[in-house]
Design a protein that fits this description.
ubiquinone; about 60% helix; transmembrane helix; extended; UbiB_kinase
């Protein structure tokens, strides 16, 4: 671990007074003494709230900690509201690195000949700069520079970012262990697990080939006639020029979803746009089981070329989420039950899925859920906070020992993003009424007669392939069953014979022991010849018991 970096982090935390997060009464005397010995590292921001100081400290520590703060801001189930709100204010823009250096990284990845042949007008000034990578614009010539050019962007990982990230994560893990041990709520906050989750997420983002594959899959899901191309557009990826640290993607020209005034000036149908945002989310989750899990405003744009028929545009697919069939079904049924205010079913589904212990009282759990959810219905989005509802639900479920479900963490994060976008675009949107028909239709498709026919149709090729083998398979099964019965009969017979032989050996041993004891007593009393005969008979029976061997077939 880099001792200089560790000191820098410790210095930043202390100068922002973050040691106040640790309860003084729980700290051992030597820790308090060590803190007082660092007299030159005093809190320099006493006039600011603790949550603000926490966010400023993370910002000052650089890209890795900023990214961590952004991820942590989505875990409202773990943080106090003021901390979650402050961390949500972290921005993606960070200082860029040199454009010439970015160009050389690209040339090294794809080769100088390929770069000079297919790319031109490379802009040294980055279009955007984020914590892990930055983006440059260029022209792409598929057939060489003599052909027609296309506008593209090239995403380049920051040089040395992997080493920096791994070093900083080690430090984070150390502080997480301290928080878990000394903070009163440390165990519930699960800081070690949060750091482990962050490590996995950010290491996945360091592989731009993974991001390219995710974007291709997401684009394919919303094409091929399976969904209107007016719902979501994903820029094309030029995968043959992508590498682990370089991504080449079609350049899009849209309006940032957070630019509300511009969208209004373009007379965009905000109601339809907001409704399509809900449709995009639920389609990804429940139809495709593959969803963009980083849909913050910096990654979402709007194609307003047809203002009355706007299209969502999604970029940066480095983080995606998936759900298995069972989790997806339970989630859909939970949503529908929520929309129908069937809190009994919600409680029962949590128990059936194993999300809460099976011994949980369904009646008590139902009442607790009703208390949280009933006040929010029949209200427009502007009057409710779905994020706050989620937090209340997490707190309620925690009272009933609900464990954190790792597969649902990204889903919860994406739901919070969707709420924020919907609130910005069209505050009057009724999220419940928009999503309910979609989910009800999906549940019917998954559990009704149509679902059965679909499954039969999907399995027909397999059954058709195996059908000619059925007679042989049936014969082999029956023959195996008959052979098994014969083997079982032989085994039972063998066990019975062995049991009989063991009984005989036991009988010989008992008689042998009795004869030897009798002979011993007779010899002690009379020292007569019959005692020797009895002893000999006992020894003979003992030999018979020892020599008796089980029969083998």
């Amino acid at each position: 671990m880099n001792s200089h970096r560790l000191y820098q982090i410790l210095k930043t935390f202390l100068q922002y007074g973050l040691d106040e997060l640790l309860p003084k009464q729980a700290l051992p005397w030597y820790v308090r003494l060590f803190r007082h010995s660092l007299f030159w590292l005093r809190n320099q921001h006493k006039d600011k709230p603790l949550a603000l100081r926490f966010r400023l400290a993370i910002e000052s520590l650089g890209p890795v900690f900023i990214k961590f703060g952004q991820m942590l801001s989505t875990r409202r189930d773990l943080l106090p509201p003021d901390f979650a709100d402050e961390l949500a204010a972290l921005q993606d823009q960070v200082l860029p690195f040199d454009g010439e250096q970015a160009k050389q990284i690209i040339i090294k990845a794809m080769g100088e000949e390929a770069f000079n042949l297919h790319f031109g007008d490379f802009d040294m000034t980055p279009l955007a700069s984020a914590s892990i990578a930055q983006v440059h614009t260029a022209s792409f010539y598929p057939d060489g520079k003599a052909g027609q050019g296309r506008d593209v962007v090239l995403k380049v990982l920051r040089p040395g970012i992997s080493k920096t990230i791994l070093a900083d994560i080690k430090v984070m893990a150390m502080f997480a262990a301290i928080v878990a041990r000394w903070l009163p709520d440390g165990k519930r906050l699960r800081p070690k697990e949060v750091v482990a989750e962050y490590r996995k997420t950010i290491l996945d983002e360091l592989d731009l080939m993974r991001e390219a594959a995710n974007a291709i899959q997401l684009k394919r899901n919303f094409e091929q006639g399976r969904s209107s191309d007016k719902v979501l557009y994903v820029p094309g990826i030029y995968s043959e020029y992508c590498h682990k640290n370089v991504l080449v993607m079609e350049r899009i020209y849209g309006i940032g979803v957070g630019e509300i005034e511009t969208l209004h000036q373009q007379q965009v149908n905000m109601k339809l746009l907001a409704e399509r945002g809900v449709e995009v989310f639920f389609t990804q989750v429940f139809r495709d089981s593959f969803f963009h899990a980083d849909m913050h405003p910096g990654n979402v744009f709007v194609d307003a070329s047809s203002p009355e028929d706007p299209t969502w545009i999604a970029i940066d697919c480095g983080i995606v989420g998936t759900l298995n069939r069972e989790d997806k079904r339970y989630l859909a049924e939970n949503f529908v039950a929520f929309f129908n205010r069937d809190y009994r079913k919600v409680a029962q589904l949590h128990v059936d899925s194993g999300w809460v212990p099976h011994e949980t009282s369904v009646d008590e759990f139902e009442f607790a859920i009703r208390t949280v959810c009933e006040p929010i219905f029949n209200k427009p989005l502007a009057e409710i906070s779905f994020g706050q509802v989620l937090v209340n639900l997490f707190n309620t479920a925690r009272r009933f020992n609900m464990e954190v479900q790792p597969q649902l963490v990204l889903l919860q994060k994406t739901l919070l993003y969707i709420e924020g976008l919907g609130r910005q675009l069209y505050p009057q949107l009724d999220l419940w009424q928009t999503a309910k028909p979609f989910l009800e239709t999906w549940v019917k498709q998954q559990m009704g007669p149509k679902a059965i026919l679909t499954k039969v149709r999907e399995n027909l090729p397999f059954w058709n392939e195996k059908l000619p083998e059925m007679p042989d398979l049936v014969y082999d099964y029956l023959k195996a069953g008959k052979d098994s019965q014969i083997q079982q009969a032989k085994l039972i017979s063998q066990l019975n014979r062995q049991q009989q032989q063991n009984s005989q050996k036991l009988l010989y041993a008992v008689f042998s022991g009795a004869l030897i004891i009798s002979a011993t007593l007779l010899f002690i009393e009379h020292k007569s010849f019959p005692a020797l005969i009895l002893a000999g008979a006992g020894a003979g029976m003992a030999l018979l018991a020892l020599k008796k061997k089980p029969d083998n077939d």
